[in-house]
Design goal:
Order of helices and strands of chain A: HHEHHHEHEEEHEHEHHHH
Radius of gyration of chain B: 19 Å
Oligomer: heterodimer
Mean pLDDT of chain B: 98
Helix content of chain A: 40-55%
Strand order of the largest sheet of chain B: 3-2-4-5-7-6-12
Helix content of chain B: 25-40%
Largest sheet of chain A: 5 strands, parallel
Number of helices of chain A: 12
Largest interface: A-B, 50 and 46 residues
Number of strands of chain B: 14
Shape of chain B: globular
Low-confidence stretches of chain A: none
Strand content of chain A: 5-15%
Distance between the termini of chain A: 44 Å
Strand content of chain B: 15-25%
Structural class of chain B: alpha/beta
Mean pLDDT of chain A: 94
């Protein structure tokens, strides 16, 4: 999966400093949040497994910039960026990853199952590809209920090998559902290069289902945002599309994975592709001062520190309350 | 009160649910144009339109997964899996997604979906179209499982399942589809988790569900001819199952035989027997017996299948053993 992007690089023509700075703020928020998680995980403060999206932030930020709060997304095990970009409150996010009762999921889901229905975030997912059919059903509901909303299914290139993707693409095309498939193609399927697992190009698969496919540079947040704006509009009006974002996985499959299977040169080559660096260069070209970037960085840092501190002060969840949520009471719907 | 077939009661429940709640949608393989492979959804497309009653591709995993997403986004999906054997293909959506969403999202959401699926042998349908796999679903926290035994419960439990905010598996025994029984003119939803006593007796209790209810009723009649009075408890719901009703029956009769068409090993009867052996120990005058299918795939040959499905004679034999 190393084909060149099919879309032109963002030319900045439609860009204003304020717009790009807004995207940059989101990129930085995700990056700094995950960097904070790296140290907290290493310190044993974050239990379980975490899968970081470092290097892939531009996909989350760019796609979400084209969505409204009522649009829905189904995410993956590598979903922190999707969650934060969709607008999950940072306090509830950190509290969930620290397994606190104050967490968005009251400490029962953790990193791989974080969700916030109030902002249309239908959940991260511990099963590769499972979010595809959830997003399909959400798109079905949007269409059936006559809403002007779209659903977005995020998935990695590893999920290209899952049969569910094929079932969902067929149904979405057949029923012309307002469903955007967003592939975060980072070239890796867990510990193996996807080239050793996937025998086809997503573009060809999309063509087989008659679904429009666009491949872009997923490390250029403006390219993603521009493409998403166009494509989401088309999906809202007329049916599914595939947006393939070529991006980079910097950390391992999971945090703590030393990536011994990976050529060190491969990792060294990622520097220039860093979406934050790409965005910062664009901002410099637009004449945005370093001081503005510094102000954003300070703001992001303080938001994250506040969220971490609040999460640390949280409480262990209560077993009886958890037990009571195995089933919904009859009056729940 | 009219006499209707089981299949008609299912159809009526779907029609009434579609009428009562615009969020209800019915989908599955061949449920719309063809009206269902067994005819359970016949006529619904004409009445409610193809926006609400629609056919899907042969894609069980995506059908079930779409139901989860639709249920999280405001619909009340009812989908059909043509044979329970094919629920092997829906397991991620049902077990990892639908069952857990409420819990793992901290109570933010409910997943009000219904999976209808027929189980059971007797039609010579062979090993991949006849299994009773309800124990799989009853084993998963977050799912409910019901198994109606006649037209009135087929109606009442399906309506209840559609109204329930939780994911519910409705298991219909396909050998019962043609069965006739009474259905009130204005039938009501039943309460999930409540058993009913179909026959009272002082000597032993048959606890059963689905098509095996009728096997137990036949066995009870045979035993009555010998002066042995068996109580027959129709569970109707397996998850949750009516522990209180079973314990009350055992407290009256002091002998228990659990009967189902599902394979005996690790079947629903194992759970019921274990619970009664613990909490009903003081009430029991004999070991608990289970009658279920042997540990064998469901065979095709009538000669084999006839021996495979638990018979009234097998139930009578079990009764004699607990009375000995």
């Amino acid at each position: 999966m190393t084909e060149a992007p099919t879309s032109p690089p963002s030319d900045g023509a439609a860009n204003t400093g304020a717009r790009v700075l807004g995207l940059y703020r989101q990129l930085l928020l995700i990056r700094r949040a995950e960097e904070r998680l790296i140290t907290m995980f290493a310190d044993g403060e974050v239990p379980g497994f975490i899968h970081l999206s470092v290097g892939q932030e531009a996909v989350s930020v760019g796609v979400m910039s084209a969505l409204g709060a009522q649009d829905t997304i189904a995410s993956t095990h590598r979903g922190h960026g999707h969650a934060i970009a969709k607008g999950l409150p940072l306090d509830g996010f950190f509290a969930e990853l620290l397994a606190r009762d104050e967490g968005l999921c009251r400490g029962r889901g953790g990193s791989m199952h974080v969700a916030d229905m109030s902002v249309g975030m239908l959940g991260a997912n511990g099963i590769v590809g499972a979010g595809l059919s959830i997003a399909l059903g959400s798109a079905l509901a949007h269409k059936r209920l006559g809403r002007e909303q779209v659903a977005v299914a995020f998935f990695g290139d590893g999920a290209l090998a899952e049969g569910l993707l094929h079932e969902c693409m067929n149904m979405a095309a057949l029923w012309r559902l307002p469903l955007l498939f967003v592939c975060e193609n980072n070239g890796w399927s867990e510990f193996l290069p996807s080239s050793k697992q996937i025998s086809f190009a997503l573009a060809d698969l999309a063509r087989a289902y008659g679904i429009p496919h666009t491949r872009i540079d997923g490390n250029d947040v403006v390219a993603v945002a521009d493409a998403a704006a166009d494509i989401v509009g088309a999906v809202r009006a007329g049916g599914p599309a595939v947006l393939e974002c070529m991006t980079t996985r910097v950390r391992g499959h999971f945090e703590g994975d030393a990536q011994k299977y990976r050529d060190p040169d491969d990792l060294d080559a990622l520097g220039p592709l860093d979406p934050i660096r790409v965005a910062a260069l664009l901002l410099a070209g637009l004449g945005v001062e370093d001081a503005a970037l510094k102000a954003v960085a300070d703001e992001v840092e303080s938001r994250i520190e506040a969220a971490v501190e609040a999460a640390r002060k949280g409480h262990d969840p209560d077993f009886a309350a958890a037990y009571a949520d195995v089933y919904s009471p009859a009056e729940a719907v | 009160m009219a006499e209707v077939r089981y299949l008609h009661a299912v159809n009526r429940a779907l029609a009434d649910a579609l009428t009562a709640d615009p969020a209800v949608v019915v989908f599955g393989e061949d449920v719309s144009e063809a009206g269902g492979s067994f005819g359970a959804t016949r006529g619904l497309r004409g009445r409610f339109g193809e926006d609400r009653v629609f056919d899907t591709p042969i894609s069980e995993a995506a059908i079930a997964g779409a139901a989860v997403g639709a249920a999280l986004s405001g619909l009340r999906p009812v989908f059909e899996i043509m044979f329970m054997d094919f629920t092997t293909l829906v397991m991620d959506a049902m077990v990892n997604q639908a069952a857990k969403a409420r819990f793992m999202f901290g109570g933010q959401s409910s997943v009000p979906l219904v999976m209808r699926t027929p189980h059971g042998g007797g039609l010579g349908a062979g090993p991949q179209h006849s299994q009773c796999l309800e124990a799989w679903f009853a084993h998963v926290p977050g799912l409910k499982v019901v198994c109606p035994s006649d037209p009135s419960s087929a109606y009442g439990l399906l309506r209840a399942a559609i109204e329930d905010p939780n994911p519910v598996v409705v298991v219909e025994n396909k050998a019962l589809y043609a069965m006739k029984g009474e259905l009130p003119d204005t039938p009501e939803p039943m309460t999930i988790g409540r058993a009913r006593t179909l026959r009272t007796g002082r000597d032993l209790s048959f606890v059963t569900y689905g098509a095996a209810v009728h096997t137990c009723m036949a066995a009870a009649r045979d035993l009555a001819a010998e002066g042995i009075e068996a109580e027959v408890i129709d569970l109707l719901s397996l998850q949750p199952w009516d522990f209180d009703a079973v314990l009350a029956s055992v407290s009256r009769t002091h002998r228990l035989v659990v009967v189902h068409e599902a394979v005996e090993a690790f079947g629903p009867g194992a759970e019921i027997a274990a619970r009664m052996a613990l909490d009903g120990f003081d009430e029991l005058d004999a070991p608990i017996m289970r009658v279920g299918a042997p540990f064998m795939p469901v065979p095709f040959s009538k000669a084999l299948e006839g021996a495979y499905i638990p018979s009234a004679a097998a139930v009578v034999n079990a009764a004699r053993r607990v009375l000995a």
